[in-house]
Amino acid sequence: MRLQSKIILITTPVVVIFMLAIGGISFSMLQEATVERALGNTRSFLTSTAGKIQVLYDTAAKDIELFANSNLLQNYLLTADEEVRYPLLQPTIIRLFSSYQKANPNYYEIRILLPDGYEDTRVVHTDQPNITEEEGETEIFQAMHRAENDLFTRIWRNPDNGRISLLISRRMLLRDPNLNPVSSPKTLRGYLAVTIDLGFIEKKITEAADEYGTTFLLLDRGGTIFFHSEQQPVLSPLPGKLLQQALDHLKDTSPFAVADNKQSFLMLSRTVNDSLLLLARIPRNNLYAASNRLRLAVALTTLCAIVIFSALLFFLARKFIVKPVILLRNAATDLGHGNLDISLNQSADDEIGDLARSFMEMRNNLQKSHEQIRRLAYHDFLTGLPNRVMFLDFFRRVVENAQRHHRLCALMFIDLDNFKRINDTLGHNLGDDLLRQVARRLQETIRKSDFISISAQDQDPDMIARLGGDEFTVLLTNIREQNDAAIVARRQLLALAEPFKLDSHEVFITISIGITVFPFDATSEEELIKNADVAMYHAKEKGKNNFQYYSNSMNTEALERLTLEGELRRAVERNEFIVHYQPQVDARTREIVGLEALVRWRHPERGMIQPKYFIPVAEQSGLIVPIGSWVMKTAVKQIRDWQQQGVPVVPVSINLSSPQFQSKAIYNIITSILNSTEVPSKYLKVELTESILLKAEEEAINMLHDIKKTGVEICLDDFGTGYSSLNYLKRFPIDVLKIDRSFVMNITTAPKDAEICSAIIALAKCLNLSVVAEGVEGRDQYEFLRDKGCDSIQGFYFYKPLPAAAIEKLLTAGKKPRSGDMEMD
Length: 825
Known about the structure:
The protein is of the alpha+beta class. The chain is built from 25 helices and 26 strands. An eight-stranded mixed barrel has the order 18-19-21-22-23-24-25-26, surrounded by five helices. Helix 18 runs parallel beside helix 20 (698-709). The N and C termini lie far apart (115 Å).
């Protein structure tokens, strides 16, 4: 049997069964929807009618209370003298009742009945007969008289006109004004009765009709029918069985089934005012007749669907199964005969498509292997960009082409700032993701419309490559002038300034860009690469997040920096550093209360080198960590030596650099030095800048608290020059604030600097922190700070940094500096 015949033989019964099931489910759902729509309409009618009747009851009850409280009516009932009551007061009462009727046309009869039932006053707005004025023996008056509540309501047939109406009455209990108006008992003076026309309710019920023959009834709980939609005689009783079923299902919103005269009904009920019932009775045969008409339509639709789907199945089976299998068979035959130039449709997302793709994969494996080897050799596996090998080869050809055609080209070196911190913090996986995102954004910054090419022919495309790590290169192969590279550089800075989404983290990065231009800066690839690298490091030195063009002076600076770094390494090994100490004096007593340890480099050839020249190089090269540790050891040992010699000792402050603090070993270094020298921790202070605290992670903050627990005081140096925030003073265990010299320098001439210093001192006092002012060089500065409450003064006005021997003499002599006197040695 052929494959096509097998498929049809297997699937046709499945389609028939499925379509029959769909038809049955559709019929069931349509039937249910039809029934539910009929029941919903009936529920809406019952709810609407019940609401209108309830509103009528509530409004009538409020109105009759309003009528009964009329002073005119009460005065009329309390007047016993008939010669006054009837000729003088009754006309006014009649006019009052007439005004009520005009405002409420349904109130067609308003009466006053005396306690014995006599109809004292009667007002009707139509010419209605009055069968009798003696109502005392009537059943309705007796019920009114026996009622427990003063307010009485009942639907009844009015004997005067034979109409079903609503009677609502109010018992008039009043105190005799001739007796005590407070303590005298209320006596029955009569009844105020209002007869209300129910014609609009009757019309709504009797005219209600729907396509299902639904019957609507209004009756009381005793079963007396008042209105009937089939115009049956009113005041006839509802059969007791139906009434009981209706009462039993008052709280149900779902219909309940009843049988009457061998006919089945669905009934819905609503209660009105606790005394009336609204019933709806729907014949089941009529309800389901409409849905049964759907059965034939659904059956015909199902049959047509079976025929259509069977034909469609035959067509689809041939197109998507039989034909592709035949093509695969023919392709296999051709492959067996050695024909490799075969093409098959591989778009199908099924088993046949998988087979076709597997077949084509056999033909493509060798070609893919060659392409993969080439890609691994010339592309970066992480970002997909050209790698160093491909870049160098391409760069060589670009330079040769530029020389041949006398063109300009620019090489840009790009380095991510602080990428190592992100990589170490978030992990290498997210670091790799960041590099991929950076590569995509850099690619978007290179557009063909950036520059107007000299010629569209014989022009190399621009290239972005990843050399390794977080270093990228951009090669602009054809620019008109040197400044064109700045256009791309600015765009790259803006593109990478937007936040990066790494998993659940939002990360901001900056880049430093170095630019060199052929042939102005160099003519060989090696020189251009070196120049771009130098320019990139110069951009980092300029604060990062910028671009710098290469200049010849940069090479000189780079060479000097490299030389200085090598000499600095040897200086650490040869112990060429010394420590000077600058005293801090009490602002009031001018006694020395502390020292700041400052490192100096005694170069064997250049002499004494100031820290501002070698400290930045030490921080960049990482040498600041061993230098800082040496300074701390030397200073603490000096404290120990002074103690052993009996020299009065004051606390010594040691500056911590960012690399020292971030090394996370500083706590162990401090405790180790204090323990080995047995110097009390109160004689050691450490100084940190705001920039260090800004980068501090939670682990480093905890370490700072651990240092504080040892008894070592922590000073915030250069306060106000960085990203000053009160959050530092809350999160970090700061003991001392040091006002930066940039504020102190102009304190007597710049009002804003004076205000800043005053504010820092006031803030420190509020937080119980000590304040040290740096860079004090004049008497006016000193006196201003002293008067504002500054605790300690440090600066050339009192002392410059001195060797340990000179400091020892000062501490031993307990010398106070004279005003304006600087100790030089």
